[in-house]
Amino acid sequence: MTEDRISERRLLGAFVRAQRERLTPEEAGLPRTGRRRTSGLRREEAAQLSGVSTTWLTWIEQGRPVSMSAPALARLAAALRLGAAQRAYLFNLAGRRDPDAPETARTSEPPAEIAAAVAALPTPAYGLDPSWSRCAWNAAAGRLFAAWLAGPEPNLLRYIFLTEDARRLICDWEDRARRVLAEFRADYSRRLHDPAMKALVADLRDRSPEFARWWDGHAVLAREGGLRRFDHPEDGLVAFRQHTFSPASSPDHKLVLLTPETP
Q1: Is 33 exposed, middle or buried (CB count within 10 Å of its CB: 0-12, 13-18, 19+)?
Q2: Is 112 helix (H, G, I), strand (E, B) or coil?
Q3: Would the CA dihedral through 111, 177, 219, 199 be positive or negative?
Q4: Which secondary structure element, helix H or strand E, spans residue 260, and what is its range?
Q5: Which end of the chain is more exposed for a tag (fewer CB within 10 A), N or C?
Q6: 192-251 residue pLDDT tens
Q7: Domains in the chain, please, with CATH?
Q8: What is the mean predicted confidence (pLDDT) over 5-30?
Q9: CA-CA distances (angstroms) from residue 160 to 125, 164, 178, 237, 252?
């Protein structure tokens, strides 16, 4: 077994265990009986709900080389109440195709439609490539994120976790940084063998204690919109609604649009 595959199995095991321990018996549809040392599901409970043996689940969590069929993984995902991003992460780490996942085309070239849309929009908008580095932005985004978009560091995660400017600009920095990391992890699982992605994670783990600690928490989230607040050095406190889109021709790229939030 290659070193990469061993690493993936360890990641898979840590992820499954983290999700099991986060899920309460009530959330899983089980009655709470007697005193429990932890609030999460016991391993035998998760195994029973998944229709698998406790030994199989134990070996998964230990990162051991066991056979993992797509139907068994689907039952495990359902038992652990995984969301779409978490389910995709599970299947990607296991090296199996989710039978319920839609077919999508993939390209490494930045799509022209992102550049065109960004240029046409009057409010802050920017594009992210598959490694979450900037690939296009308009003047409004350049003003809001001047230190990132006009700076030497193109990667959004390095900007958020490694610069003091990001901590000053982004209101509720810790909450936003944790959310961005969990969203990035969902994308990371689809590019596990990408040397650039592996180097990015290794670099951030070495240079940011927060990134290293939260990365080991194995939180996975789909990228969602919502309120984003910034303390701009010239404009003061400003608020936007964030919307994220991926073009059908290149779903690994993202178009991020910020619309002003009325007071």
Answers
A1: exposed
A2: helix
A3: positive
A4: strand 254-260
A5: C
A6: 888 888 899 999 999 999 999 999 988 887 777 789 999 999 999 999 999 999 887 788
A7: 3-94 (1.10.260.40), 112-260 (3.30.450.180)
A8: 88
A9: 17, 8, 10, 18, 20
